[in-house]
Amino acid sequence: MEKVIVTEGLTKYYGKARGVVGLDLEVRKGEVFGFLGPNGAGKTTTLRLLLDLIRPSSGKAFVLGMDTTRHSVKIRARTGYLPGELSLYDRMTGEEFLRFFARLRDGVDWGYMEALCRRLEADPSLRISSLSRGNKQKLGLIQAFMHRPELLILDEPTSGLDPLMQQEFHRLVEEAREEGRTVFISSHNLPEVEKMCDRVAFIRAGRLVEVVEVASLKERSLHRVEVVFAAPPPPGIFQSTPGVLRADQDGQTARILVQGSMDSLLKTLALYPVHRLVSHEPSLEEVFMTYYGVNGPPDIPETLPDRGGDRS
Amino acid sequence: MRLPVFSRTVRDRRRFLFWWCVGMALFVVSQVSFYPSLKQSDALRQYMEQAPEWMKMFTGGEVDIVSPVGYMNSQFFYLMLPLLLFIIAIGLCSDALAGEEARGTMDLLLSAPISRRRLLLERWAASAFLTGVISAAFLATALLMAAAVRMEIGYVKMAEATFNAFLIALLVGTFSLWVGAATGNRGLSIALGSILALASYLLDSLGLMVSSLAPWRKMSVYYYYSSNNVLARGLKPGHALVLLGGIAVLLLLSLDSFQGREIGVRGSTSLPLLHRLRTGSSASGVTRNR
After folding, report:
1. Alpha-carbon distance B172 to B196, whole Å?
2. Which DSSP string do the residues of A153-168 spell out, in sequence order?
3. For residues B246 and B160, what is the distance between their CA atoms, to the nearest angstrom?
4. Using CA atoms, how far apart are residues A237 and A253, in angstroms rounded to an integer?
């Protein structure tokens, strides 16, 4: 199978500060690939290495079969990129901005661009400085999609988008997949990645933890469920329920951690009068804890330094 | 040939360009319109003849500020015109790369299929073009005003002297561009550009007054701008070549540094040439992180 992105021992240090270490990744043609990790894990560093904005300390990266440090212009002609910390030209209008980027590229179909603007409900006649964060994000997305690139590299693409626009964005990604194009998405939001992606790479503290099929991820996905019963149920009712990892009962309330299918839990609950049922998606940190143990793999510290971004 | 970055940069700067041209014209009008009354004033001439030595620093050693050439030199070419053009060129060139990086838009711009070399050259050319247009606005107004007050001055010499000021400004601007290309630090780019301009001006001017500094004057790029009195004698090819050569060298250094620049990484400096000289290797794209 054709590989669109290949990294071989890709390593980046900023002076002594760690970016990514020994990253080996393969992204196949036509897949939607999620790149998941907490803030500061090295996601943005990896994406910026792929675009040759920064250079590897060691190791190599190939995009569309070409070395990123040698053929960057050719790679970028066939790639669409959305930066994680999106900054736009404040003094331009949306249209001026999009026309400028269309001129930097060849073969942008203006009709398609207008269709993208309509779909994402972006008004390109407004000055960029007057736009909200979400509306700026839309312009960034349109700019990445407008030339129908073979590869899309998107850093936290849905940040700032309202749920309706997130849906529209998911459809854009789905269309790209149907057209056989490849999408590489970084995120710290597991449910979102599960919705869109075929495979997910987990990265933590600069190192690749695991690459998994999303289908297999769903089987072990975690949910935190809080149940309020109409009357206190007998203790220990969840002991033999498959999928329940932990259950804390406190009078009428039970807090339950479930892995995989919720089916067995619901059937157990059906035997008792339930007043209220709330399900939370677990945080990425909880997922890491559950998958990789409380302390994680040996070289990963338990608490992650949160620098508010992946750049150092 | 399509020059998307060049044309976009010039368009984005159209207000800047307009107001600088207006300001330059008003400055020229205000200065030259005093000339007729000054010409008849013996008091000033006497004052200048008795003026202390250090006063000459501000007039380029000219005692005669009443003749057309002396007046134009003292009012514009010796200090004010290059100073204004320095401000313009440093502002534009520091913004060209470092400003783009500071605003965070460099990531997006360099995700488009444009090589770093081309981006740098188009941005530099736009900065040179804008500085050139403002210089031309100065020249046009100065010639019109000179004609209006019947000041006898050669058109060609005026054009040569203005071009000379444009060259020294572009040299200082290109130095700022290099600092910006190597560090991505706009403040540093402005500061070092201004220091180069100020230090070379001071060295040249003091060298004129202080005999022990005289041999050092040639170390100052300002010497190659000011020492020849271009308005009286015309552009000296040797001096113009020094300025043009300096621009070319700084442009090459900028290209070299920008090629190795780690975009958005604060505190990193890209001086691949220096690195190659030190290690004797031919590795490119080497960036030093502090």
Report:
1. 7
2. EEESTTTT--HHHHHH
3. 18
4. 13
- Residue A61 to residue A176: CA distance in whole angstroms: 23
Number of domains in chain B: 1
Q: Do A86 and B108 touch (CB under 8 A)?
A: yes
Q: What is the pLDDT of residues B22-75, one digit of tens each?
A: 999 999 999 999 888 887 777 776 776 677 766 666 655 556 777 889 889 989
Which residue of B12, B106, B265 is in closest CB contact with A14? B265
DSSP state of A20: E
Instruction: Determine, for residues A54 and B262 on separate chains, whether the beta-carbon distance falls below 8 Å.
Output: yes
- Of all residues in chain A, the one with the smallest CA distance to B289 is A15
Q: Is A81 on the interface with B (CB under 8 A)?
A: yes
Task: Please report, for residues A161, A241, B137, B228, the alpha-carbon distance to residue B167 in angstroms, rounded to integers and kept in the order given.
Answer: 49, 82, 16, 14
CA dihedral B18, B23, B28, B33 (to 10 degrees): 120
Mean pLDDT in runs of 10 for chain A (312 residues)? 93 93 96 91 96 96 97 97 95 95 91 95 95 96 96 95 94 96 92 89 90 79 87 85 86 87 88 89 70 49 39 38
Q: Tell me which residue has tokens 């300390």.
A: A57
State how far Cα B283 lies from the chain centre: 33
Task: Provide the phi-psi class of A300: left if phi over 0, else alpha when psi is between -120 and 50, else beta.
Answer: beta
A274: tokens are 């339930």
Q: What is the Cβ-side half-sphere exposure of residue B172, based on CA atoms within 13 angstroms?
A: 33
Tokens of A12: 């980046």
Q: Residue A223: which of A198, A204, A246, A201 has the closest Cα?
A: A246
Please check whether residue A98 is in contact with residue A142, taking contact to mean a CB–CB distance below 8 angstroms.
Answer: yes
Contact A83 B115 (CB under 8 A): no
Beta carbons of B70 and B156 less than 8 angstroms apart: no
DSSP code of residue B268: E
Residue spans of beta strands (DSSP E) within chain A: 3-14, 17-28, 32-36, 58-63, 66-67, 79-82, 151-155, 182-187, 199-204, 207-213, 222-229, 244-250, 253-259, 274-280
Q: Is the dihedral of CA A290, A296, A302, A304 positive or negative?
A: negative
Kindly list the structural domains of chain A, giving each domain's residue range(s) and its CATH number in brackets, ordered by start. Answer: 3-218 (3.40.50.300), 220-292 (3.30.2130.10)
Amino acid at B228: N
**Which single residue is written with the structure tokens 């601007």?**
B173
Residue A87's nearest CA partner among A137, A12, A22 is: A137
Give residue B24's domain range.
Answer: 4-289
Quote the pLDDT of residue B286.
47
